[in-house]
Structure formats: C-alpha cells, structure tokens
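Action item from last meeting closed. Structure (353 res):
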C-alpha cells in the first residue's frame, strides 16, 4: 500500500523571532491548511527524534557545532543579519535534522513509501562550518549522508526547488561521488552562488547540476527545466533514493522570492519527482521543508505536495496563476545539455550502446 508520512514536532515553534519571515507561524499555517484539507486520516504521522552527535559530525565540523550550541544555549542573538538563534534554537535544529533522519529510516524501513519532514529551522544554506540564510544545520545533507552510511546506498539525489541556491548542500557534497545535487534557483539572488559552471570536482565531478534562472520564471519555464534537465539528469544518475529540498519561496506571492510559480506549478514539479522516484527507486521520495514565506501559499503548496505524494490529483490551486511575461529559459537548458558531464557521458554511452 502507498503510504505517505509526515514528521513534525512542537519543539520547532520555540525557534522564532519577532518580525522575522522564518518564524513559528510557518508551521502553524501548514497545520491549518492540513486541517482544512481532509488529508489527515490518510497520512501516517511519525514522531521525529533528535539527531545524534555522530550524525551531525558526519556533515558538520565539531568546533562549529559546539560554537552554535553554546551561542544558542547562552541566549542566542544574531549569527549574521539574516540568521538568529534563541535559547530553544539548538534543540529545534537537532530535531529538525532528526525529522529528516527519521524520514530516511521510515522510507528505507518500509514504514511508508514517501515522507515529508515538516520541520524548521530550514537547512540548505548551512555549510559544514557556517550557519547562514536562516539555516543552522543542513538537515537534508545530514539525512543524505545517513542514507548512504547506514543503509548502504551508493547513489542518492537531492533536488532543490527552493527559490534560493542550496549553497550549503552543494558545498558539503561538491567532492562526493555518491550524491547528485540539482538546484533550480533565481539568478541573481541570495546567496549569489550556483552558476551553471559549478559541476562538482574531484571524485564528485559531474555530480552538481545548477540551473540558475532569470527573475520572473513561472510554471512554464520551471516545467520546461524539469522536463528537459532535472528528470533526464535523475534518469542518468539512477538514484536509489530521491530527496527534495522543498522550499516554496518561488511562489508568486512570496515576500522574498522573485519568481512566479503557482501552487499548481509547484505540484507539477513534485509530480515529476514522484514519477521519477516511481520509475527509478521504487517510489522512495523524501521532501524536507526549506523556505516559503507567504503563509497561505506555503500551506497550499505543502497540501498539494502531500496529495501528489499520496498519488492523487493535487486539487484546485486556491491562489491561482499570475500572468506575467515568461523569461526565456531555453538558453540555460541548451547550455547544460551541451556542457554538463552528466549529459555528455550519458550521451556517449547511449551512442556506444
Ligand atoms: Zn529560499
């Protein structure tokens, strides 16, 4: 039976800061949208756990972990102009990473087919030794490493459709041959990283795939990119588990994201990843919440994604589509297909076969 799990916890609400967009109300909005969705009875609720120290040090530098734990437990404050901690943030962060870890256990152990970690603080900007961009620990990287190390996987993929580049995830896995990291992101935009020319290095050469997109791209452009670049990349990679850095700040209503995706458009992207997981890895798919700062859009995007994970129609888009000029994305698609090693080697092996 196809089962979809959600993982969330009360502890996340204590990590909040007045006036900040990355606040407790984000998960409250998701809970409210779930209540209205009538999906609750169909979802398996799994309690997260705290990440264990060894699971954190598999990704993060011990000195970094000690310093942010100390900073938080001594009352916190601003780590940088974007990123705050309070006295509850360290525990929230270890439980946020723990939600993604527990999702790996659930999906790999057959408790569920797929899962959505509804946790915060988010993670994809956090590097091995730096918190930034509202992120303290890199939840998805910690979970991906755990899947490789504890479940004997050889290839996993991370697709990041948050509007911002997942610089932390890229950085952590830049030399890692077992993790394909694919990111679509607004360009130029925070944090300024993620050009198409970053493709991984050393043993990880060809395992980073960036799709920087002009500001204002909506459903049509994103779907084109997913159809022509992301899904073919996954097919070439043959992952045994697919993770998604599920940020919903590319929605047209988002207060900080410069793109114009709709709820329905986001659901189509999720559907393509769901179909890829079904085709490539027995449906094993884990979504990990990242950004998304218009509360109504965030709730609607998460509900639509959960309907897709349940194998259903995503339902009506409650916020609708915005009509805007659609920037051309064919240039970046052509550039990646002709220059990225993932497509070149796949092309070569197909030609030789
Ligand atoms: Zn973001």
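Sequence:
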């Amino acid at each position: 039976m196809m089962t979809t799990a959600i993982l969330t916890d009360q502890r996340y609400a204590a990590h909040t800061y007045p006036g900040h967009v990355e606040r407790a109300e984000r998960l409250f909005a998701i809970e409210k949208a779930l209540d209205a969705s009538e999906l609750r009875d169909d979802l398996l609720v799994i309690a997260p756990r705290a990440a264990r120290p060894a699971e954190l040090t598999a990704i993060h530098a011990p000195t970094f972990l000690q310093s942010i734990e100390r900073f938080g437990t001594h009352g916190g404050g601003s780590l940088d102009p974007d990123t705050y901690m309070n006295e509850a943030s360290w525990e929230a962060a270890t439980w946020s990473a723990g939600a993604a870890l527990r999702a790996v256990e659930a999906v790999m152990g057959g408790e569920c087919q797929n899962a959505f970690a509804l946790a915060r603080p988010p993670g994809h900007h956090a590097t091995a030794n730096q918190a930034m961009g509202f992120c303290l620990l890199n939840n998805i990287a910690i979970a991906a490493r755990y899947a490789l190390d504890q479940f004997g996987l050889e290839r996993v993929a991370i697709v990041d459709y948050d509007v911002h580049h997942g610089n932390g995830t890229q950085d952590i896995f830049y030399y890692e041959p077992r993790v394909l990291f694919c990111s679509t992101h607004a360009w130029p935009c925070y944090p300024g990283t993620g050009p198409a020319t970053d493709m991984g290095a050393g043993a990880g050469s060809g395992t980073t795939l960036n799709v920087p997109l002009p500001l204002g791209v909506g459903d049509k452009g994103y779907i084109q990119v997913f159809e022509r670049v992301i899904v073919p990349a996954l097919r070439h990679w043959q992952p045994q588990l697919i993770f998604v850095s599920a940020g919903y700040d590319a929605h047209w209503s988002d207060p900080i994201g410069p793109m114009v995706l709709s709820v329905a458009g986001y659901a189509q992207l999720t559907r393509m990843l769901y179909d890829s997981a079904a085709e490539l890895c027995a449906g094993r798919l884990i979504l990990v919440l990242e950004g998304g700062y218009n509360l109504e859009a965030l709730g609607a995007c998460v509900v639509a994604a959960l309907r897709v994970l349940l194998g259903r129609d995503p339902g009506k888009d409650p916020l609708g589509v915005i009509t805007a000029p659609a920037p051309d994305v064919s240039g970046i698609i052509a550039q990646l297909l002709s220059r990225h090693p993932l497509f070149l080697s796949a092309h070569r092996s197909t030609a030789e076969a």
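Note appended to the action item: The chain has one domain: 4-352.
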